[in-house]
Design brief:
The chain is built from 13 helices and no strands. It has 343 residues and is an all-alpha fold. The protein has a domain of 73 residues.
């Protein structure tokens, strides 16, 4: 997950640098907010409820049809959900879509930073950090940051803070030539270190190695940081190319992410009574999850009006007035959700 956050920071840097001026950057944030929060809104009200239904049914809390459940779900004050109140709205939770929520919140923070960083008072500090911070120091600081987060934070706060640190690091290093050259220079060191640290973690998990807790935590968090850099240097070496199919694959990542967990859970829920056995069940769940995600994505991709609801870019060109109307509609739809996430 840390790798995804780092890549998100890099992507955010390149996208923000394409626009200049306060108005254009504010417009960029508005458009990205619609792109991120509209699929999250769809997920909250249409996709994630499937997971809650399966969970409550399996726990014996309910024994009703999904339609009856969903009508009750739409009532945010329904007593049926009194023990499921940790959501954005009482029982309307993000579940696996927490990444979209955090990504939007982090984007706002980085946007504010990008404005403040242009002030002359910060120029000297930023220049000093860029020049004097070596690759080994950067790695060490990130490991220390992960250790501090793990030691002093609890629950989801560890995940959120660790994610923001890597996203912000990716944003800062996106155009740093020294960093990318260092990845290339230390490729074998990073890959070897990652493998050795991974072996230590596996041996400790299997109780072959009896490690004190502080040693285990240090190895684990070091492996997380080194793992990010190892994957980056391998991608830099072997995946740095362009191909026509990459655009198609990139466009379906977002909808597959939004859909996959609900598809998987519902398939497990539906197949449970049949007792097919682990091999057959695993095959059916794997093929069924991919198939369901692909089918829904292909249908949505055929209609421009539906594409934004799963985070897919609109294919055709439209008049400026129609585009403006679309942005206004999108903004109105996400406004209540944006308010909840901020306040």
């Amino acid at each position: 997950m840390l790798l995804i956050w780092f890549i998100s920071g890099v992507a955010l840097r390149f996208m923000l640098d394409k626009v200049s001026g306060y108005k254009l950057r504010a417009l960029f944030v508005l458009k990205r907010s619609i792109f991120i929060l509209l699929p999250l809104l769809v997920g909250l009200w249409l996709i994630v409820p499937l997971q809650l239904y399966a969970e409550m049914h399996q726990q014996g809390v309910i024994d009703i049809t999904y339609w009856q459940f969903y009508l009750a779900f739409l009532d945010t004050s329904n007593s049926m959900f009194v023990n499921y109140q940790s959501g954005v709205w009482p029982h309307v939770d993000v579940n696996h879509l927490w990444y979209l929520r955090s990504l939007w919140q982090f984007m706002l923070i980085v946007f504010i930073y990008s404005l403040v960083a242009k002030l002359s008072i910060f120029s000297f500090l930023l220049t000093t950090v860029k020049v004097n911070l070596s690759f080994s120091m950067l790695t060490g600081l990130l490991v220390i940051a992960m250790l501090l987060a793990n030691n002093y934070l609890k629950g989801d706060a560890i995940r959120e803070v660790s994610g923001f640190i890597l996203l912000f690091t990716g944003y800062l290093l996106a155009k740093n030539t020294y960093f990318w050259a260092s990845l290339n220079q230390y490729r074998w060191v990073l890959c070897t270190s990652f493998i050795l640290l991974y072996v230590c973690i596996v041996l400790a998990y299997l109780s072959v190695l009896d490690l004190p807790n502080y040693v285990w935590v240090t190895i684990y968090n070091t492996q997380r940081v080194v793992g990010v850099f190892a994957m980056l240097t391998l991608a830099q070496r072997f995946l740095n190319f362009k191909a026509p199919y990459l655009n198609t694959l990139n466009s379906v990542v977002f909808p597959f992410y939004v859909l996959h967990q609900s598809a998987l859970i519902i398939l497990c829920f539906m197949l449970r009574p049949f007792n097919f056995g682990p091999v057959v069940e695993l095959f059916l769940i794997t093929v069924g999850t991919w198939g369901a995600c692909a089918a829904i994505t292909l249908v949505v991709m055929r209609f421009d009006a539906l594409r934004p609801f799963l985070g897919i870019k609109i294919k055709n060109s439209y008049s400026p007035k129609l585009k403006k109307a679309g942005y206004i509609l999108g903004m109105l739809l996400i406004l209540p959700l944006a308010y909840q996430l901020v306040f």
